[in-house]
Predict the 3D structure of the following.
Amino acid sequence: MKRVLGSAAIASIAMFNSSMAQQLPPADAKAGECYAKVLIPAKYQTSAEQVVAQPASTTFKKTPAVYREIEKSILIEEESYELVPVPPVYELVSEQVLVQPEQTVKSVIPATYRDAIKKVLVSPARVEWKVGRGAYEKIDAATGEIMCRVEVPAVFKEISQKVIDQPARTNEEVVPARYETIQRRVMKNPPTTRKKIIPAKYRTVKIKELIEAEKFEVIETPARYASVQKRALMASETVQWRQILCETNTTPGIVLRLQNALIGAGYKLGFTPDGELGPGTLAVISRFQQDNNLPTGGLTLSTIQKLGVEL
């Protein structure tokens, strides 16, 4: 008696066949070739970024004004005359003479700084697969494997930089002008008879004369930068089928050449090369793959080519 399969059973069988096809090596593999799922490492790109370690600043240099002392004759008594026999009448008049003009004195108050801590992103946060562990029994190659999605936090670097707390500024102070009071004799009533000439009188005083005005020079200090290395993920690690050498298609001669090539590359086997692809040789091959960013998980052709071994 024939058994008729329902549509649900047929769909289930098709999904199983599709899943099995995805787990098999490439269809164009030749007889005698061996393939294994290997871990293709992630690819990163490292770039340098310039950050400000100390900002640009401006300072001021003050050059004071230059003066010189000169002597100046000031009229203190005008020319006059008198009449005889009636002499003229005089009176004393007070007068202020400018000795030093008003001036503005500028002073520079320098800028103040403070240290600030700045966080710079070195590696961004990412999510990746990790092999998990649990109370599962591995029956065959398709069961018992646990993969966990874990989050790798971002990595930051703290740098110290100087920032302006209070910028530089100037302060102005006004020095008032200085005067000197003098008295001079001024004729009040003229003579009424003959004239008698009285010559004018002068007084010599010392005053400060400005030769070169006060100057300010602006000095610009450029910003100082520091270089920070940033690492960016270009391609995530994957698991892919790759052609390998295993016990089925590996000869003792190939393994012996491989062991000698590892020794020539600076790797110690811990035993004399024997041409056997044992656990010790596979462990050294795994270290070589990790050091050279090669796919791991088996003796791949790319590893053999990297070592320069001829098949």
